[in-house]
Amino acid sequence: MKKEIGFVAVGQAGGNIGKLLEKTGYTVLYINTSEEDLRTLPDAAHKYHLEGGEGCNKDRAKAKKLLARNIEKVIKEVSGKVPQNMVFTIFSAGGGTGSGIGPMLTDILRQELDKTAGAVTILPGGDESVKAHVNAWDCVRELADIEEIGACFFIDNNTMRGRMKLNEVFVRLLDDFVSIPEKKASALGNIDRAEIKEVLSARGAALISRTSRQDTTTARVIEQLRRGIFADLDEVKAVKYMAVLAAGSQAAINMQALQAEFGIAYDIFQGFEAEQTICCLSGLRFPFSRMEKIKKKAIENQKDIVNSLNAVSMNPMSEELDLLAKVKKPEKKKGSSRDLLQKFL
Length: 345
Ligand SMILES: Nc1nc2c(ncn2[C@@H]2O[C@H](COP(=O)(O)OP(=O)(O)OP(=O)(O)O)[C@@H](O)[C@H]2O)c(=O)[nH]1
Ligand SMILES: [Mg+2]
Prior knowledge:
Layout: E1 5-10, H1 11-24, E2 27-32, H2 35-39, E3 46-49, H3 60-81, E4 86-92, H4 97-111, E5 116-123, H5 130-144, E6 151-156, H6 163-178, H7 193-201, E7 204-212, H8 218-226, E8 241-245, H9 255-262, E9 267-271, E10 276-284, H10 288-300, H11 302-313, H12 337-344
Parallel strand pairs: 1-2, 1-4, 2-3, 4-5, 5-6, 6-7, 8-9
Antiparallel strand pairs: 7-10, 8-10
Helix pairs in contact: 1-6, 3-4, 4-5, 5-10
C-alpha cells in the first residue's frame, strides 16, 4: 500500500515531514524556492529547486510567481518522480513557499495530472507572528476553494510543544492507517486497500487516532480524535467515512456513539482483532471554527500594525531649519574689475 501513495513536500515544514515519510518507505518529491532548505535533505531521492528562487520570506505572492514561472518543469518533475495516482501535498500554511504554492499545486495535480490529490497542512501556533496567521488564513481559504480535493489533514502547532515531535506523531498515524491492509486478517472483518483509498479520497478534513488495546473504549477513541495533533473540528457536524480497525471484537467500539459525536457517516469500514485500535474519519468540515480564531488573532493586531507602519513611513520633520534666514546679507554691488582695482589701489 505504501507504494500506492506519493507525496509532494513543499517548503521547510513540508520537507521535514516528507523526510520522515521517505524514511518510512514512501515516494517523496521535495520542492522549494530555497536551495538552503533543500540542502537540509541530503538523503532525498527527488528534489526540485524552483529556478530564480532564493526563499520567499513568508511572501506567498512571491512563491506563486515562482511556481508560475516553473510550472511546466514542475509538472514534468511530478509526473516523472511521483507516478502514484493518489498524491498528497505537504506544506505549512503560515510560511511563504509552502503556503503560497501548496494549494495551487494540489489543484494542478488534480486537474492537469488527473491525480487524486489531498493535502497535509500545518497551522501556526498561537505564539507565532501576525504574518503567519494572515498567511494561514489565505492558504486555507484557497484550499477550501478546491472543489475536487481529497482528504486534508490539518496538523495544528497549537496542540503540542515540539514541532519535530508533531511531525513524527503524524507520520506514524498516517502510516498506521495506510498499512492496515497489511496487518493480520480477521475472520470477523477487515479494511481493504480500496476502502483505505476511498477514505483518503473524500473531500474535506480528516483525522486519525491510535489507541492501545488495553485503552480501547469508545470514549477513549473519541477523546483521542478530539484531542490529538489535528486542528479542532468545526462546530458543524459532518462526516463522510469512518474507518475503524478495532483491537477487539465487534463490541469494542460503539459506532452509534461515534456517529452521535461526529455525525452520521455515509459509509463505515470496520476491521477487528487488531493489536491496537486505529480510527480514521474523513469528509469532515474544514476546521472553519479554528480558522476564525486565526483570523481574530490576525485582526486584533491590525490597528497596532497599521499604526507602526504609518509611524515609520511618515516624516514629521516637515520644516526646514533655516536659522540664518533673518541675517541681513550685504547688497551685492556689481562693478567691473577695473573699478575694483581702482578701489583697492
Ligand atoms: N509542525 C511543524 N511546523 C513547522 C515545521 N517547520 C516549520 N513549521 C511551521 O511552519 C511555518 C513556517 O513555514 P516554513 O515551512 O518554514 O516556510 P516555507 O514554506 O519554507 O516558506 P518561506 O521560508 O517563508 O519561503 C510556521 O508556522 C512554523 O511554525 C515543522 O517541521 N513541523
Ligand atoms: Mg523556507
